[in-house]
Specification:
Layout: H1 10-25, H2 28-35, H3 39-62, H4 66-72, H5 74-97, H6 100-107, H7 110-122, H8 128-144, H9 154-176, H10 183-204, H11 214-236, H12 243-265, H13 271-299
Helix pairs in contact: 1-11, 1-12, 2-11, 2-12, 3-10, 3-11, 5-9, 5-10, 6-9, 7-9, 7-12, 8-12, 8-13, 9-12, 10-11, 12-13
């Protein structure tokens, strides 16, 4: 995506790209519910459509240079695609084998993982305000899922932990390779996700692989629009924004996703969820404002 001509400072550009990406991603949980598909069959469709959608975005912005963009990701992009595929598969396994609340609270440590990996492998300092924001957002996510915590299983919780590590690693890898656009890696990740999920879908869900009617509309919206656009924007974010901050902003999806389900399906998330969500949103807003003030002070 061509954003190099924007007059915005890099940090604000990263905030804008990532926030837009997360906002586009927020209806994802609703569309998954509306699709009514079994998890591995859904992963096959989502992976294939995500790959097609990303290629379409590349064709729009780069026209006859699509193959050059794909080749430019190099080994770093291939590693990113593998790790991103792992995060997707582990997340589905977590939701399958443990309570949703347990999965969400464990996956919410991804910004902490990104901060530690960025500091260890990239030598990127993490400011105190980011560490504090991570702590407050974890508190907010804990309140959000408070009523259902502790009802999961060990294997599902372990899958959620692996998912968090993969998300943190994917953000760090993207930050490391920020000299080139890693958006094409998301097409490869979609293809790999479909290839991993296909044998499981054929084995466990042979009669549920083809959506129809309203289910098909939900799958197409999710796979061709929501997933490719959101992942393209979020993947562009670490080119301008530290990995830990991108991870923090991604927690907005955890907060706003259930609101879509509430508005459309009428599934009330609960009072604690609203309180926790408000804490997360306030923390992220305060973190962004504090960062802007700190950068203005450094320029004066």
């Amino acid at each position: 995506m061509s954003v190099s001509q924007s007059p915005l400072p890099d940090h604000q550009k990263g905030l804008l790209l990532t926030t837009l990406g997360v906002m586009v991603l927020t209806p994802d949980s609703l569309l998954i519910r509306l699709s009514g598909m079994e998890p591995f069959s859904l992963l096959v469709w989502r992976g294939v459509l995500q790959a097609v959608g990303i290629l379409a975005i590349l064709a729009i912005f780069h026209q006859d240079r699509v193959m050059d963009q794909i080749r430019s990701i190099g080994r770093c992009g291939i590693l990113l695609a593998l790790v991103f595929t792992g995060s997707t598969v582990f997340f589905i396994l977590a939701l399958t084998y443990t309570a949703v609340a347990d999965a969400l609270i464990i996956v919410a440590i991804a910004p902490l993982v990104a901060a530690l990996l960025s500091r260890s492998f990239l030598g990127e300092a993490v400011p105190l305000r980011t560490w504090m924001a991570i702590c407050f957002t974890l508190l907010g996510i804990g309140l959000l899922v408070f009523e259902d915590l502790g009802s999961g299983s060990l294997w599902g919780d372990f899958a959620a932990l692996c998912c968090a590590v993969c998300i943190g690693a994917s953000l760090t890898i993207t930050r490391h390779g920020r000299a080139v656009s890693m958006i094409p890696a998301m097409s490869l990740a979609g293809t790999l996700t479909a290839l991993v999920a296909l044998p499981l879908a054929l084995w466990l869900e042979p009669g549920h692989m083809v959506p129809a009617g309203p289910q098909l509309v939900a799958v197409l919206l999710m796979g061709l629009l929501v997933a490719p656009i959101s992942f393209a924007l979020i993947t562009a974010g670490p080119r301008y924004l530290p990995a830990a901050e991108v991870g923090l902003l991604m927690l907005l999806e955890t907060v706003l996703g259930p609101l879509w389900v509430w508005l459309v399906i009428g599934e009330y998330p609960g009072d604690w969820a609203l309180v926790g969500g408000a804490i997360v949103i306030a923390t992220l807003a305060g973190h962004a404002l504090a960062g802007n003030r700190q950068r203005r002070a450094a320029l004066t």
